[in-house]
Protein: FAR-17a/AIG1-like protein
Amino acid sequence: MSGTGNLSRRHPLQRFASPSKGFSGALHVAGLISFYHSFKFLADNPNAINESFGWHFQFLTIIGISISTACFTSGLLADITNSHTFYTVKNYLALVAAPIEIVISLLYWGLRAIDDGLVVPPDLPMPPVLYDLGFHLVPAVVLTLDAILLSPPWPTMPMNPQAPTIMLVTSTAIAFAYWWWIELCYSYNGFYPYPLFGMLTTAQRVGLFAISGATMWVVGGALRVLYAWVNGYESVEELDKTKRAYKMRVEGKRD
Structure:
């Protein structure tokens, strides 16, 4: 079989069985329901952003929820089909989705504590509290639970020793790709999605995105530390042994 088949056992450091139709499936369904209602809110409450270039994808929040939706869709498909392929896709998407959602929550609520006008355009109303939490807190919570409780060591199998480097490169690339994107949208729309961007000079915006990328990298490291604290950490000898067993199990299921 190519990419499907039962995963006979979870990794020894994985807290709960996943993929599974139990807790794993329930978490992925709950997350997808929340993401659906967030997108439905945007469709049901159109504003000037709907008509502008880039739609709501100008907002990092919406980009994050889109990645999270792809991540949890892959996870739910793995729960339903027990597919190793979907499970692997879910875990690699979580490598990006979990840190970015945590950073979004930290930045959003931190800036709002200073001044709502830094993150919400003056001509747009604040979303109702439940939807605000759905946009800016729930994704971080469910992605963190998935990464810590339902995934093997970071990112998709026994702990990858290059994970810090992978995360640093990924975080930097995402931060500056988003900078390029919002500058493109600004060239068409004449405004930035977040008022804070318009208050900064170009050099200051570069600094902001560099700091955001570094924060995402730190968050990724913190998730790995939290994973080890919750689930334990393998010695080098155990890691090599588990890698060999994992590889043999996967290859055996493809024969």
Observations:
- The CA atoms of residues 182 and 193 lie 8 Å apart.
- The longest helix spans residues 84-114.
- Residues 1-8 have pLDDT under 50 and may be disordered.
